[in-house]
């Protein structure tokens, strides 16, 4: 039997959801603990912050259909590992999200 990485902490960026004005572009999932954070293009860059603060360097995309893994420490793609379900955020959940919090000018606010 293969060990699975922990399940995701939720369906959206934990830090963005905790902030009434928080929103994200795309989501990333920590392979070590399952923390869901927002991507580097998002204002908060919470997935990278999580990696920096915890030493959990590898994350997987949490976007439907994306299969890639990233090592924040090495700044390169990482080896895939088996993940506990669900593999991605719900497909009916909008990106950017969460619904109702994304500003109309969201594209101009993304980090390049």
Automatic annotation (TrEMBL):
<feature type="compositionally biased region" description="Basic and acidic residues">
    <location>
        <begin position="102"/>
        <end position="112"/>
    </location>
</feature>
<dbReference type="Pfam" id="PF02148">
    <property type="entry name" value="zf-UBP"/>
</dbReference>
<dbReference type="InterPro" id="IPR013083">
    <property type="entry name" value="Znf_RING/FYVE/PHD"/>
</dbReference>
<feature type="domain" description="UBP-type">
    <location>
        <begin position="1"/>
        <end position="94"/>
    </location>
</feature>
<dbReference type="InterPro" id="IPR001607">
    <property type="entry name" value="Znf_UBP"/>
</dbReference>
<feature type="region of interest" description="Disordered">
    <location>
        <begin position="79"/>
        <end position="112"/>
    </location>
</feature>
<feature type="compositionally biased region" description="Pro residues">
    <location>
        <begin position="83"/>
        <end position="97"/>
    </location>
</feature>
<protein>
    <submittedName>
        <fullName>UBP-type zinc finger domain-containing protein</fullName>
    </submittedName>
</protein>
């Amino acid at each position: 039997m293969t060990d699975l990485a922990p399940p995701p902490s939720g369906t959206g960026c934990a830090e963005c959801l905790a902030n009434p004005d928080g929103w994200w572009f795309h989501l990333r999932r920590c392979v070590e603990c399952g923390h869901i954070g927002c991507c580097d293009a998002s204002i908060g860059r919470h997935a990278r912050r999580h990696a920096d603060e915890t030493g959990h360097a590898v994350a997987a995309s949490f976007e439907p259909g994306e299969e890639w893994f990233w090592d924040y420490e090495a700044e390169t793609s990482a080896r895939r590992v088996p993940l506990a379900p669900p593999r991605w955020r719900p497909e009916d959940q909008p990106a950017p999200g969460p619904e109702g919090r994304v500003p109309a000018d969201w594209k101009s606010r993304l980090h390049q």
